[in-house]
UniProtKB/TrEMBL annotation:
Keyword Signal: no
Organism: Hymenobacter jeongseonensis
CDD domains in the cross-refs: OmpA_C-like
Matching PANTHER family: LIPOPROTEIN YIAD-RELATED, STATOR ELEMENT OF FLAGELLAR MOTOR COMPLEX
Protein name (record): OmpA family protein
Pfam families named in the record: OmpA, PD40
UniProt keyword list: Cell outer membrane, Membrane, TPR repeat
């Protein structure tokens, strides 16, 4: 017996050498030579038929199975190739000459999620392959992938996602789902047919909680160019999406922004050279307030072929130069499809640069401090599978998740071409505890009005964390309807301010530090003009019981008040103190006066001229509510700002 080498040119123009041992049986040898000749003539289908005859008559001849496996792989019948390689390698001796076949068997089995078969193949490869084998490091990593996957399947995390019901999933392709903070609008990229370009679609939530018929987002957005991979801010007013090959583009695919006023979207604008590169930029994800943007880019200087970058909206209205997120988020592999949760503290993305289930898996990491992220954690099975996962979205309340997946299709018959573009659907799932964002979010929304005319106002609505005096949200109410939406995180105490030009600052307080009553709120805001005699309650000044020293967490309110007085330098104010009716009138009057004086002292010590400031105490006079409950007494214990 002697060895015969056969090489043929595959359709992809890569030579695949297959070592075939010549059988001593004449009939077997004739069939083998016939198959070899048919292969040289590039008649792969007939060669496979001949090898099938050889397999039937001489089932112990393993090399014929391996040759058939290479031919099936060449014509795109990967499932058939997997079976052929598995049969063939079970019939030949463990030998270094079969290293490439063990590699191929492992890769094929892994691509179908047959982890045990793949694990065994990689183990065999590592036993026989020389140390200089070019794919040795890859195979060692794939072996770890198989071990991880087998363990993950034994310990599933939650239930498998299920397709969204009709009228969703009516297209051939739909992907990149994103929702507004109140879950009223679902944005996604759709392609009605395989030949269709990408457009952005919106499905509105019905009164019963179901999602309605998807419609194109706007004629101002969807054009003859591809518009896909969109993201929308929590209030539904800022849209960023990717579009390719547009005129005056910076790279082959750029990111564009559009803003909604009333019911109309503005003409998309390129985000410019601080964000876009001469390469591919896509897959954006906006923070809830639309002021921080994460996205994927292939620009030079990254850690892998695709990396995740971040940019921030500046006070000037421009975007900061995009920064690579760096390690541990970005790897030497593909790091793609970021999603920042509404809370702003948890990032999800897909990567093949970390050990997972195979291909692209979804990972989760938490922001430790600004710009620094924890080690990514795999979301586990069944959210991750042997196939490439796409983008993930989790609602602000951490209850429901959305993703897109390919529908399973039957394997092509031997000799047919592999279907490369399987239909893609939108899926949803209940979010397991370990997958949830670190912080659960809710929202408050409503409208901003002029207190006199009751007409809607365009106002800046800012949210501060009182414990840190850090601005966490900054949105603008709609100039036509006055509506706004602000996202708040569980476990925090917030101060919210609404401000418009020539109007008094409105102060509101949301204390979720003890996690009670953490539900969405509808709250309309009425702003008083900056006019003599007008007053407003300062809701975020804090004193201990029967004390007049301002507590440290009052600095957020005091600093906003200083900003207001610097903006309106001709305004003089009176700081008025009030108490409830607990205690003697004399003691209450003294306490209210000293508390008002504490505020004036702070303002004057921070640069506000004392001549503009007055302090006055009213004790338990002028209550806002009857002093018949603790809630009402709390309303009556207050500090007011009054324009003189």
């Amino acid at each position: 017996m002697f060895l015969l080498w056969l090489a043929f040119v595959a359709p992809a123009s890569s030579q695949i050498p297959v070592k075939v041992q010549t059988p001593t049986n004449t009939k077997a040898r004739n069939l083998l030579e016939k198959a070899q000749q048919q292969t040289k003539e590039r008649d792969f289908i007939k060669a496979i038929e001949t090898l099938n005859q050889l397999n039937e008559k001489f089932p112990s001849f393993g090399e014929a199975y391996l040759m058939k496996g290479s031919l099936l792989k060449a014509i795109g019948n990967n499932r058939g190739a997997l079976a052929a390689y598995r049969d063939g390698l079970s019939k030949v001796a463990l030998d270094a000459s079969h290293a490439s076949e063990y590699q191929m068997l492992g890769d094929l089995a892994l691509s179908y999620g047959e982890y045990q078969t793949a694990l065994n193949a990689y183990k065999m490869l590592l036993k026989v392959a020389p140390k200089a084998h070019r794919n040795l490091a890859k195979s060692e990593r794939q072996l770890r992938t198989c071990e991880f996957a087998l363990e993950a399947i034994k310990n599933p995390v939650g239930e498998a996602p299920v397709p969204l019901p009709a009228p969703l999933n009516s297209f051939k392709f739909q992907y990149f789902p994103a929702l507004t903070a109140d879950n009223r609008f679902l944005l996604f990229t759709g392609r009605p047919a395989a030949s269709s370009g990408e457009d952005l679609f919106v499905s509105r939530q019905n009164k019963d909680g179901t999602l309605g018929m998807p419609v194109p987002i706007s004629r101002a957005i969807n054009t003859s160019y591809n518009e896909g991979a969109g993201t929308i801010s929590g209030d539904g007013k800022t849209l960023v999406f990717a579009s390719c090959d547009r005129p005056k583009a910076i790279g082959n695919c750029d990111l564009y922004i559009s803003r909604r006023t009333g019911n109309n979207w503005s003409a998309p604008a390129n985000l410019g050279i601080n964000v876009n590169s001469t390469e591919w930029d896509s897959q954006p994800s906006l923070s809830a307030d639309g002021r921080t943007l994460y996205f994927t880019s292939t620009r030079r200087g990254g850690q892998g072929q695709e990396d995740i970058y971040v940019t921030n909206l500046q006070p000037s209205g421009s975007w900061s130069p995009a920064q690579n997120l760096g390690t541990p988020v970005n790897t030497a592999g593909k790091d793609m499809a970021p999603f920042i949760h509404a809370s702003g503290t948890t990032l999800y993305y897909v990567t093949d640069g970390l050990v997972g289930m195979g291909g692209l898996d979804v990972f989760r990491c938490e922001q430790v401090v600004a710009g620094k992220w924890s080690e990514p954690k795999n979301l586990g099975y069944p959210l991750n599978t042997f196939e490439n996962e796409a983008s993930l979205f989790i609602t602000s309340d951490n209850q429901k998740g959305f993703c897109s997946r390919s529908r399973a299709t039957d394997e092509p018959a031997a000799g047919s071409r592999m279907v490369r573009e399987r239909p893609v659907e939108l899926f949803s799932f209940a979010v397991p505890t370990v997958v949830k964002a670190r912080e659960t979010s809710t929202y408050t929304q409503g409208r901003v009005f002029d207190a006199n005319t009751k007409k809607p106002l365009k106002a800046e609505v800012k949210l501060y964390d009182i414990d840190t005096d850090v601005l966490t949200q900054f949105v603008t109410s709609d100039p036509e309807y006055g509506d706004y939406t602000v996202v708040l995180n569980e476990g925090h105490h917030y101060a919210m301010y609404a401000a418009a030009d020539k109007y008094l600052l409105k102060s509101l307080s949301f204390d979720y530090s003890d996690k009670h009553a953490f539900d969405p709120l509808t709250l309309d805001i009425y702003l008083e003009p900056v006019r003599s005699g007008r007053s407003v309650v300062l809701n975020n000044l804090f004193f201990d019981t029967n004390k007049y020293d301002l507590k440290p967490k009052s600095r957020t309110e005091l600093n906003r008040l200083i900003e207001f007085l610097r903006q309106y330098q001709d305004v003089q104010i009176q700081v008025s103190g009030f108490t409830d009716n607990v205690g003697t009138p004399e003691a209450n009057l003294q306490l209210s006066e000293r508390r008002a004086e504490s505020v004036v002292t702070y303002l004057s010590s921070h640069g506000i001229p004392p001549a503009r400031l007055r302090a006055k105490g009213y004790g338990d006079r002028n209550p806002l509510a009857a002093n018949d409950s603790e809630a009402n007494r709390q309303l009556n214990r207050r500090i007011e700002l009054r324009i003189l």
